[in-house]
Design a protein that fits this description.
- The complex is a heterodimer of chains A (244) and B (253).
- Chain A is an alpha/beta fold and 244 residues long.
- Chain A contains nine helices and ten strands.
- Chain A has one domain: Rossmann fold.
- The N and C termini of chain A lie far apart (39 Å).
- Chain B is mainly alpha-helical and 253 residues long.
- Chain B has nine helices and no strands.
- In chain B, α2 runs antiparallel to α3 (57-79), α2 packs antiparallel against α7 (143-173) and α7 (143-173) runs antiparallel to α9.
- The longest helix of chain B has 36 residues, at 13-48.
- Chains A and B meet through α2, α3, α4, α5 and α6 of A and α6 and α7 of B.
- Chain B: Residues 244-253 have a biased composition (Basic and acidic residues).
- Chain B: This is Amino acid ABC transporter permease.
């Protein structure tokens, strides 16, 4: 079966610093992959490379078997298919909640205003934000903003949705609501790559866990194996701090 | 002196009024057209000052050239006095356009303001969080769409106080256009004072008129600014779609 995203020998440097070193992995339809690891291990950079917010130095990123780093690929079309949810939400501050979810549909997907609005209202309902569609982002709490950001990404009908530490900037109390939305999404069959420090979420929801350390994938496997019987010494050390 | 000034104001009011009208015409059109020039030049500078990693060699070269041209424009018009620009451009281009002094005045003040506005807007655009750009790009918006829908509206809002200040400056600085005989407030005052040989009294009136103009303007701008930053007091809620959880649908086979 063809993988949705396949990454081969991906390398990325920032100056002298090697951030990603020969990364290889793939994701299939309906997969939920969580990427764990300490700060600076290259998790976010990996996500940003898949979305082309960072351009890798070397390697291949295949979307449906086609290399997105080569040739005449339309970067903007690619980004529309690969959604991204950021740690700092990044809602458009000059737009209402509803408009945040409509603008991409109208400008990028060229949907009509009515269609965009219908879709936006539906998805805002699924993340439980219907009562806030006229609010401006400044009036929302962090958890609410992140749920709107998820709805905004979903409005583009992405094939893969990338989450870059979606709960790291939230109050502990707000984390639950956002994770609940993400769990529902995972159950609905959405293909997701989630960079997270929420080990409970990783264990419960993911189909595969990837452990990264200093730019390398050290270990990869089903959550039960990673969390109960990690093969790598470094993985064990990292998880012991979370699970102790 | 005050009594005399009041006499002058009453007697020569039609002349003052003509000057006020020209001054307002110059400062309003100059600020508006200058803002439009600044929007274009500022956005272009902001886009051209950084090259994207996927840009081709040609795109990079074009960006550099465009950036250089805008630099020359901004530096020249900010680095020389408007009075000098006025005399230089008015007489220099008179054989070509054979233009009216008021039209020339509007052009000069607009181009001059545009150079300042470009820098004001560039800093306004730079103050917009880079996350806004990344979010827009991540849903597939082009650099132009990102600028137009997301960055520019926020940049302009951030820059609004400085933009308004430029308007106030223009009310005052349009007086230098008397150098090419634009019949604005200073030019009119000079004419009145010269005809009755009462410079102090006449220019007391002039100063007060300028003060009223600028003071009113700053108050209005301040009111607009407060209004702009006020969030909507109540927001409409969706009546059409009930709250619902996501239903599993396909895909998860």
């Amino acid at each position: 079966m063809e993988h949705i995203v396949e990454i081969k020998n991906l390398k990325k440097h920032f100056g002298e610093l090697r951030v990603l070193d020969d990364i290889n992995f793939h994701i299939d339809k309906g997969d939920v992959i969580t990427v764990i690891g300490s700060s600076g291990s290259g998790k976010s950079t990996l996500l940003r490379c898949i979305n082309l917010l960072e351009i890798p130095d070397d390697g291949e990123i295949l979307l449906h078997g086609k290399d997105i780093l080569k040739g005449e690929l339309d970067v903007n079309k690619h980004r529309a298919k690969v959604g991204m949810v950021f740690q700092s939400f990044n809602l458009f501050n000059n737009m209402s909640v509803l408009k945040n979810c409509m603008i991409g549909q109208m400008t990028v997907l060229k949907r009509s205003k009515e269609e965009s609005q219908k879709k936006a209202e539906q998805l805002l309902a699924t993340v439980g934000m219907s009562s806030f569609i006229g609010a401006s982002p400044a009036q929302l709490s962090g958890g609410q903003r992140q749920r709107v950001a998820i709805a905004r990404a979903l409005c583009m009908d992405p094939e893969v949705l990338l989450f870059d530490e979606p709960t790291s900037a939230l109050d502990p109390e707000m984390v639950g609501g956002v994770l609940a939305v993400m769990k529902d999404l995972a159950k609905s069959g959405l293909t997701m790559i989630v960079v997270t420090h929420e080990m409970g979420f990783a264990r419960e929801v993911s189909s595969r866990v990837v452990f990264m350390d200093s730019g390398i994938i050290l270990e990869e496997g089903p959550p039960e194996q990673i969390f109960t019987a990690p093969k790598n010494e470094r993985t064990r050390e990292f998880l012991s701090r979370y699970l102790a | 002196m005050f009594a005399s000034a009041i006499d002058i104001a009453v007697k020569y009011w039609p002349m003052f009024w003509a000057g006020i009208k020209t001054t307002l015409l110059l400062s309003i059109t100059g600020t508006v057209i200058g803002l439009l020039i600044g929007l274009v030049v500022g956005s272009v500078r902001s886009v051209c000052s950084k090259s994207e990693s996927r840009d081709s060699g040609v795109a990079k070269a074009v960006k550099k050239i465009v950036y250089f041209i805008t630099c020359v424009y901004v530096e020249f018009f900010r680095g020389t006095p408007m009075m000098v620009q006025a005399v230089f451009l008015y007489y220099g281009l008179k054989p070509v356009f054979n233009w009216d002094t008021t039209v020339a005045g509007i052009c000069i003040i607009s181009i001059n303001t545009g150079a300042y506005m470009a820098e004001i807007l560039r800093s306004g655009l730079q103050s917009v969080d880079v996350g806004q750009t990344e979010a827009a790009r991540s849903i597939g918006m082009t650099p132009a769409q990102t600028m137009f829908h997301v960055v520019l509206p926020q940049g302009v809002k951030n820059a609004f106080p400085a933009i308004g200040n430029e308007f106030v400056v223009n009310i005052k600085d349009s007086s230098v256009l008397n150098a090419i005989s634009v019949t604005e407030l200073f030019f009119q005052s000079n004419k009145i004072a010269g005809s009755i040989f009462k410079f102090t009294d006449t220019f007391l009136v002039t100063a007060l008129v300028y003060l009223v103009l600028t003071f009113t303007t700053t108050r209005i701008l301040r009111a607009i600014e407060i209004r702009m930053h006020r969030p909507p007091s109540s927001y409409p809620t969706s009546q059409t779609v009930p709250e619902a959880r996501i239903k599993p649908e396909g895909g998860a086979q």
